[in-house]
Specification:
- The protein has 185 residues and is of the alpha/beta class.
- It has a single domain (5-182), classed as 3-Layer(aba) Sandwich (Rossmann fold).
- 42% of the residues lie in helices and 22% in strands.
- It is built from 8 helices and 9 strands.
- It has helices spanning 15-24, 40-44, 53-58, 70-78, 101-113, 126-132, 143-154, 168-182; strands at 5-9, 28-32, 48-49, 62-65, 92-95, 117-120, 123-124, 135-140, 157-164.
- The longest helix has 15 residues, at 168-182.
- The protein is globular.
- The N and C termini lie far apart (41 Å).
Length: 185
């Protein structure tokens, strides 16, 4: 893999500590967040800051997205200033939020038409796991792309499970959430 230039979109309760772990692991990082104040600490740690997801994509070959839900993922990736408008063929997008599998498949298809790969990689382990880099990560997408991204995922999580084709990571997380609610965990 060529030099890894990671873009990180979404610096909320989970995203910010996960992005910090990438910097601590020695990765070059560019960040974007709708609330720019949340980028300050990462800038002080050495990250570059972009003003739009599109600008971030122009500077990166891996884009990690960690926003609230499917509509937000679609907006930062496919919207007017979305990352897709700055992506070159060969870029890899990793969606680490909790999204609907159907949305993942839609986004994946649109990105693939532009030559961009996508992994869906939702996490489990809460803010403490994000801070300590001990998250469980359930990954869907092409196996070769997963293997390329494993060092990046390993900087944020301890238990990384390849689940199969695109959408499989989000399906696995949905099943785990359903089981935990039914079991009262």
């Amino acid at each position: 893999m060529q030099e890894c230039k990671i873009g990180y979109i979404g610096l909320g309760a989970m995203g910010k500590p996960m992005a910090k772990n990438l910097i601590r692991a020695g990765f070059s990082l560019t960040v974007y967040n709708r609330t720019t104040e949340k980028t300050k600490e990462l800038r002080e740690m050495g990250a570059s800051v972009s003003s739009t997801p599109k600008d971030l994509a122009c500077a990166c070959n891996i884009i990690v997205v960690n926003v609230s839900n499917s509509p937000d993922v679609e907006e930062v990736l496919l919207g007017k200033e979305g990352a897709i408008h700055g992506c070159q063929p060969g870029v890899i997008v990793i969606d680490m939020g909790t999204s609907y599998p159907s949305s993942t498949l839609k986004i994946c298809k649109i990105l693939q038409e532009k030559g961009v790969e996508m992994l869906d990689a939702p996490v489990s382990g809460g803010v403490k796991g994000a801070e300590e880099g001990t998250l469980s990560i359930m990954v869907g997408g092409r196996k070769e792309v997963f293997e390329k991204c494993k060092p990046i995922l390993s900087a944020m999580g301890k238990n990384i499970f390849y689940q199969g084709e695109s959408g499989s990571g989000h399906i696995t997380k949905a099943i785990c959430l359903t089981l935990s609610m039914t079991a009262g965990i």
